[in-house]
């Protein structure tokens, strides 16, 4: 683990770094040994009784080697099985002493090491990154007071209100048990059967059918703590809080058709994107924000603040940005770090406490329990990626995979032989004390009546969407609910979402072969929350990827000038041609085509540029893959640019539907619906600037409205 620029931070940081480094082993130029360090002379044949005889039981090397192989895989997580992680650091912007006594939130000069794991929920470890799904966003802070975990998602609400329903939810959404089909999708009968019989899912389904469920990358994905927690300051004053991660690059998504095709073209699309960004020094950044409510405001709203199927609209409860996290190091070994990392919302530090959110209360047990079987026993905290910076002293002993060597005869408390150590300490000395919330009531199995409004916030979310986002939600319903075989379930989907928005229900019915609602539904909610619409997010060209289509005879100036402008703005460009290797410009200069139409696809890029050069364009015009490349980008509303003869090539594609630059344009730019063209450019910098503005917009939805 490495520090970010600007200082080494406190001793705790250095200790964690050294601790991790002690477990890293480079095996190059080393002698082969057993796990006990015994040097080996042969590893190609097992020990036998004669060269054709049976293998002997005494062959300890064979037994060790094959036994380890047999146990190389730990059970994958039941949910969030497919994940990808990275290291980084977190810094608070200003002391948060007024709100919490958590030490890592006090000193702006402190760089707290973190490990973050992003994941999908439904699919197995071998599923594709771009499936429509909730994304996990789990962060482990290695603080001087112990490890603190925020185990969140990229959506601020959840399907269910009480953790007791979690097994039912996951059993319903996982592949159906009789045939283990389908993988990593909610587009099947058992999931929607659960939905229509569990109306509390309505709000989450709206988010799941939205663009939020198919992010452009982990780097452009919001994170939420989902549940309600508490901040507690040194005076014992508590406030309710919700946690947010805001990506500095903004919140951006794929479209459904694009995401499904990417699952085949590059099932590791999100993993590769995160790895490459960090590897290239484009460190992902997320600002950390909190929503806070005074305890006396608990019942101020028309929703229950402890209901995990509800969010706190930012217009009502603003997000206070208090710090930033930077991810600046990839893992060295996926299994040892990303796969073995263990998170739990119960991992807290003084100054952070829980609420009575019934989903959170169940999670506090479930996560710890899961690690016991997944990581082979109670000592998973001793795996390097899980070890805290803070020293560990307690009376726990033994168990599977115990790595610490505990000295002394005492493993109990109280004791005399060791002067009652290790000894609990008072709160003032750093000991954790739970917030003294008053609790009273009968033991019952009931849900609060304040949790019974299932549809109002689902309507609020629908009202907050732009025309394009609503169209995408309808399209998602058509595919997901349209994949259901049972007609009764389809009809109940329509009837259920008639409670949310009648126009939505009618559109769903049209696409899935069901009857429109027989009665006008709706909740009467007319308010909106602009903060949840991705149309209101940050727009930047930084770290975007552009495909440059060129062949022999390309215009060297038109290619290099634009690529230079892109690179200077933090945009990467790949030259894509019919064949990989060196290509020669019309004036005899060469550059390398790193990709061809077999290894590249418009799905993998944010924009396309076609420079001029008559011979290059003639070659591209003969290539169906080149035309399809532009058509695919145009279909998915991505930015397209062309210069000189490249403009003529665009006219043979779907981009030709846009008014393009004419031959007599005299170097003037033409730009419309996300297509920028120029002929006879005298100012390539101006053209590059226009191109970058369009890339920053991300998608040009007006093409298909």
Automatic annotation (TrEMBL):
Protein name: Catalase
PROSITE patterns in UniProt: CATALASE_1, CATALASE_2, CATALASE_3
The reaction(s) this protein catalyses: 2 H2O2 = O2 + 2 H2O
UniProt GO cellular component terms: cytosol
Protein species of origin: Dendrosporobacter quercicolus
Lineage, opening ranks: Bacteria, Bacillati, Bacillota, Negativicutes, Selenomonadales
CDD domains hit by this protein: catalase_clade_2, GATase1_catalase
Function according to Swiss-Prot or TrEMBL: Decomposes hydrogen peroxide into water and oxygen; serves to protect cells from the toxic effects of hydrogen peroxide.
Catalase core domain sequence ranges: 33-421
UniProt entry tagged with the keyword Metal-binding: yes
Keywords in alphabetical order: Heme, Hydrogen peroxide, Iron, Metal-binding, Oxidoreductase, Peroxidase
InterPro entries, per database record: Catalase (IPR018028), Catalase_AS (IPR024708), Catalase_clade2 (IPR024712), Catalase_clade2_helical (IPR043156), Catalase_core (IPR011614), Catalase_haem_BS (IPR002226), Catalase_immune_responsive (IPR010582), Catalase_large_C (IPR041399)
A Pfam family this chain is assigned to: Catalase_C
EC number(s) per entry: 1.11.1.6
């Amino acid at each position: 683990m490495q520090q970010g620029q600007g200082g080494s931070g406190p001793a705790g940081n250095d200790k964690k770094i050294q601790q991790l480094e002690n477990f890293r082993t480079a095996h190059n130029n080393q002698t082969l040994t057993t796990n006990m360090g015994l040097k080996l002379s042969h590893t190609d044949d097992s020990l036998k009784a004669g060269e054709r005889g049976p293998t002997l039981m005494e062959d300890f090397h064979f037994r060790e080697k094959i036994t380890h192989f047999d146990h190389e895989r730990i059970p994958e997580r039941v949910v969030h099985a497919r994940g990808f992680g990275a290291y980084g650091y977190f810094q608070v912007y200003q002391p948060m002493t007024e709100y919490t006594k958590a030490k890592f939130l006090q000193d702006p000069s402190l760089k707290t090491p973190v490990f973050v794991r992003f994941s999908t929920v439904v699919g197995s470890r071998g599923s594709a990154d771009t499936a429509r799904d909730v994304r996990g966003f789990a962060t482990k802070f290695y603080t001087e007071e112990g490890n603190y975990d925020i185990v969140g998602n990229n959506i601020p609400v959840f399907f269910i209100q009480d953790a007791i329903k979690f097994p039912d939810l996951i059993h319903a959404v996982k592949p159906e048990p009789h045939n283990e089909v389908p993988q990593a999708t909610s587009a099947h009968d058992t999931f929607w059967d659960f939905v229509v019989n569990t109306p509390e899912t309505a709000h989450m389904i709206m988010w799941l059918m939205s663009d939020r469920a198919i992010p452009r990358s982990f780097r452009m994905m919001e994170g939420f703590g989902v549940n309600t927690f508490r901040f507690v300051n040194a005076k014992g004053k508590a406030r309710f809080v919700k946690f947010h991660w805001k990506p500095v690059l903004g919140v951006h998504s794929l479209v459904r058709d694009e995401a499904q095709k990417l699952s085949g073209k590059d099932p590791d699309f999100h993993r590769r994107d995160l790895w490459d960004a960090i590897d290239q020094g484009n460190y992902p950044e997320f600002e950390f924000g909190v929503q806070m409510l005074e305890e006396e405001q608990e019942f101020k709203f028309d929703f229950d603040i402890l209901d995990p199927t509800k969010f706190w609209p930012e217009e009502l409860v603003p997000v206070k940005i208090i710090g930033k996290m930077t991810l600046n190091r990839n893992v060295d070994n996926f299994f040892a770090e990303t796969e073995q990392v263990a998170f739990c919302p119960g991992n807290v530090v003084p100054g952070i406490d829980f609420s009575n959110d019934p989903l959170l209360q169940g999670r506090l047990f479930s996560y710890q329990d899961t690690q016991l079987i997944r990581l082979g026993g109670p000592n998973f905290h001793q795996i390097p990626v899980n070890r805290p910076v803070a020293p560990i002293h307690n009376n726990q002993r033994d168990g599977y995979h115990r790595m610490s060597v505990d000295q002394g005869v005492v493993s109990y408390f109280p004791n005399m032989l060791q002067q009652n150590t290790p000894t609990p300490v008072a709160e003032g000395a750093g000991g954790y004390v739970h917030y003294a919330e008053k609790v009273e009531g009968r033991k019952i199995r009931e849900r609060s009546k304040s949790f019974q409004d299932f549809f109002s916030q689902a309507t609020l979310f629908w009202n907050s969407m732009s025309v394009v986002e609503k169209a995408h939600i309808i399209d998602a319903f058509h595919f997901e609910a349209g994949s259901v075989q049972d007609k009764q379930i389809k009809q109940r989907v329509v009837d259920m979402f008639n409670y949310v928005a009648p126009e939505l229900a009618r559109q769903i019915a049209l696409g899935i072969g069901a009857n429109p609602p027989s009665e006008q539904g709706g909740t009467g909610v007319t308010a909106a929350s602009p903060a949840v619409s991705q149309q209101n997010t940050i727009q930047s060209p930084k770290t975007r990827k552009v495909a440059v289509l060129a062949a022999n005879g390309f215009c060297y100036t038109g290619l290099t000038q634009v690529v230079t402008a892109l690179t200077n703005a933090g945009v990467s460009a790949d030259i894509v041609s019919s064949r990989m290797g060196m290509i020669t410009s019309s004036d005899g200069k060469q550059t390398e085509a790193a990709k061809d139409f077999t290894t590249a696809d418009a799905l993998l890029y944010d924009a396309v540029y076609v420079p001029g050069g008559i011979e290059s364009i003639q070659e591209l015009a003969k290539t169906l893959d080149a035309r399809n490349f532009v058509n695919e980008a145009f279909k998915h509303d991505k930015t397209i640019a062309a210069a000189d003869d490249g403009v003529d090539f665009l006219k043979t594609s779907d981009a030709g539907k846009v008014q393009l630059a004419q031959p007599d344009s005299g170097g003037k730019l033409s730009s419309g619906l996300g297509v920028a063209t120029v002929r006879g450019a005298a100012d390539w910098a101006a053209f590059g600037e226009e191109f970058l503005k369009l890339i920053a917009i991300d998608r040009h939805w007006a093409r298909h409205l």
